[in-house]
Write a structure and sequence with these properties.
The protein is globular and about 60 Å long. Helix 4 packs antiparallel against helix 11 and helix 5 packs parallel to helix 11. The protein is of the alpha/beta class and 424 residues long. It has 14 helices and twelve strands. It starts with 12 loop residues before the first helix and ends with a helix. It binds 4'-deoxy-4'-aminopyridoxal-5'-phosphate and glutamic acid. Glutamic acid binds next to helix 3.
């Protein structure tokens, strides 16, 4: 053991603390990951917890995709690859964006990242200067605000509510634009709202953005394949990057996690065809200093998934659609919750306002979504994510991830109903 330094000061806690930078010290832990860790710990301790916490498909990655990665490993694709990914995988992503999304894009405009989370982080870090404003329609995924703030940006929330069906408030977005606005971050289908924005709403938003050229559009399309016309007819995914007026300044984010059941593979991507490819080249420069490429042997599996995975994606989508319908029916039978129909992604985001001010059977005061979620987990063993970290307008909402078997949905929402009925 090394000798202790002389003097009295080593005994004082303050001198033994490791330094943490202010930006990270201020940052919140991811609420979605925290709830899933808590639920996993309770399950490991033998408690029959129903996990509506994490947003993760319960399906296996399609077997041809797994086989492609195994073949790549056996072919010793185990060395460094070009930072944005090899030519084949970048071109496969560009082809997908052209054919499925109508985005004019080449392989050179794409970089593969360590999940879509990394794609968002890389985009924001490449773009932001201190004080730049990013408009964030909320409720929005928990990681957007911390990342915007980490890179010096100011997050300007524009809220929506269950009463509006979580539709974007385009007039309020217009009012939020200032000379410092640099970007707007869109996510349809939405986590946590579970809704797809209708084409008319998006058209109104795109008209507004088209007349505000300094604003970059960041479109997180990670749930694009999970749209349920079975729940509401006529809905479909629309990419802002396909609008010729916005194409030059839209950055499209997507990844393999949700549509292909590949959360653990950690594959996302950024596509930015505008400005002669200048943005993506700068992002790749940053990526080269941060992480390099995604694992080399995963690239052929991504090519396989994008080229031949459509049937698997559609079969998983159909299961999610049935679960969305089941979730909607069950939630509509809970008098104290106000819910709108989940039309996309795999979330429902009911409002618990009618429960605030009541007490749980064990005497816990329900004074917030956080308190509701804690009491529900402790007393009824249902894990879900409280709304607070999804935005100021979401303080009395709870997020239910229905990416689990229908039997678990029935049991979990059954417990949720009994819990709300037991509040006094
Ligand atoms: N965007 C949204 C809206 C998400 O819900 C998630 C959660 N997975 C991500 C991005 C990040 O996805 P990935 O697992 O690919 O990092
Ligand atoms: N995005 C998923 C969720 O919201 C996965 C966890 C995370 O990365 O936040 O639950």
């Amino acid at each position: 053991m090394r000798a202790r330094p002389p003097g009295w000061w080593w005994r004082c806690d303050i001198f033994r603390r490791m330094q943490i930078g202010n930006a990270v010290a201020r940052m919140k832990e991811s609420a979605t990951l925290a709830v899933s860790a808590k639920a996993a710990a309770l399950k490991a301790a033998g408690k029959p917890v129903i996990g509506f916490g994490v947003g993760e498909p319960d399906f296996d990655t399609p077997s041809p995709v797994r086989e492609a990665a195994k073949r790549a490993l056996d072919a010793n694709l185990t060395r460094y690859a070009p930072t944005p990914g090899d030519k084949a995988v970048r071109e496969a992503v560009a082809r997908k964006l052209q054919q499925e999304n109508g985005i004019a894009c080449k392989g050179e405009h794409v970089t593969l990242t360590v999940g879509a989370k990394h794609a968002i982080a890389l985009t924001l870090q490449t773009m932001l200067n201190a004080g730049d404003e990013v408009i964030l329609p909320t409720p929005a995924w928990v990681s957007y605000r911390p990342l915007i703030e980490l890179y010096g940006g100011t997050c300007v929330e524009v809220g929506s509510t269950v009463e509006r069906g979580f539709l974007l408030d385009v007039a309020a977005i217009e009012r939020a634009i200032t000379p410092r606005t640099r970007a707007i971050l869109l996510n349809s289908p939405s986590n946590p709202c579970g809704v797809v924005q209708p084409v008319e709403t998006l058209r109104a938003l795109f008209d507004l953005l088209a007349s505000n050229p300094p604003i970059t559009v960041i479109s997180d399309e990670i749930y694009e394949k999970l749209v349920y016309p079975e729940v509401r007819a006529g809905l479909g995914h629309v990419s802002p990057g396909a609008d010729p007026r916005l194409a030059e300044r839209t950055i499209t984010i997507n990844g393999m996690s949700k549509a292909f059941a590949m959360t653990g593979w950690r594959v996302g991507y950024v596509a930015a065809p505008g400005d002669g490819g200048r943005f993506i080249r700068e992002a790749i420069k940053l990526q080269g200093q941060l992480t390099n490429s995604i694992p080399t042997f995963i690239m052929p599996a991504v090519v396989e998934a994008l080229a031949n995975g459509a049937a698997s994606v559609e079969s998983m989508r159909k299961s999610f659609a049935a679960r969305a319908q089941c979730t909607r029916e069950l939630l509509s039978g809970i008098a104290r919750l106000r819910t709108c129909a989940p039309t996309g992604a795999f979330y429902a985001f009911p409002c618990i306002k009618a429960c605030v001010g009541l007490k749980s059977p064990a005497g816990r005061m329900i004074d917030s979504a956080q308190a509701f979620a804690e009491a529900l987990l402790e007393e009824s063993l249902v894990a879900l994510v409280p709304g607070e970290d999804f935005g100021d307008c979401a303080r009395t909402n709870i997020r239910i991830s229905f990416a689990c078997a229908e039997s678990a949905i029935r049991e979990g929402i059954g417990r949720l109903r009994l819990f709300t009925e037991s509040l006094r």
